Amino acid sequence: MTNAPEPRTLLRAAAARAEADPFFLGWALAAYARAHELSGGELAAYLGAEQDNLTRLALCRRPDTQASGFRAQVERVARYAGVEPLRLGMLLLEVATAEALAGDADADVLLAARDHPEDEEGV
Amino acid sequence: MADGASAAELALHERLLSGDPVAAAEAAEALLDPLAARLRAAWPGVRDPQLVEEATIEAVFNYLKAPEKYDPQRASLMGYLLLAAKRDLSNLLDKERRHAIHAVSLDDGSPAVEVWLADRNTSVEDEALARLGPELPEGVDRMEALRAIAQAIPDERDRQMLVLIAEGERRTSAYAALLGIERLAPEAQRREVKRQKDRVTKRAQRLRARLSRGGGKPDDERS
Question: Which residues of chain B are within 8 Å of residue A56 when distances are taken between CB atoms?
């Protein structure tokens, strides 16, 4: 997901590993970035943050979109990691929706489909 | 605090138990580097830093995902994590060994040096070191082992011969090519190859014995 050369630290290694674990927010970030073909820098820009913030963000626990406290959790995470709460919330909802509809393997495909309005013609 | 968690550890632990999404990231930031340092100190013979990294992350992640398994009354958090990380590292080392070729004897007796086939792209010194196993004898670090190899087997051709022996090469012609004695009569080649193999084998046995005694000062070695 990252595209800038960064010194490899243990924290960054952990954040990279978090991308493969649905427990962590990093998993949602990676799914969203893959589906929208975003680099690490582009994802950070979308979230209104510096790329370094993504490491802290990735290691947060992924908020539960079904929980009543979802909004509060998103705001708390956004404050901690220095990202836009609304964008973060939308990202998490989008990934969770795709996951719920199609299962993990197809989540990226469903997310990407939203970027191609011409497909709505049914072609 | 010798037993049980510190106040800071307890506070973080409670937040993890409550499902605070930020606690996981804060815990990772606080725990990863210190745990890795302790793991390296507890297991200095591991040559691959990636294995230590993997074991550290595995232990911390397992804790973050199931904090209820840790009992703050029984041990400090770092003690709990170090135990888990050692277990994970041990499993990773076992997996490495299972992927390697079986131990090979250097002579017909019991194995004097346990050897594994190493990656061909390494230097001869690295390959010789690799033949001492992925885990060095306790108390011996990599630099010390390399110095010991250079001292015990200073001749590069001897080290290349050690590699051939460890790989189970049986053809006299292979050793003869290395020794540059292909023009000798077959019987003379065979005798010379055996003499050189015995000489190198004895040096490797003495080296292993020295390292197993804890590295230290070199013994007097005669060919």
Answer: 25, 29
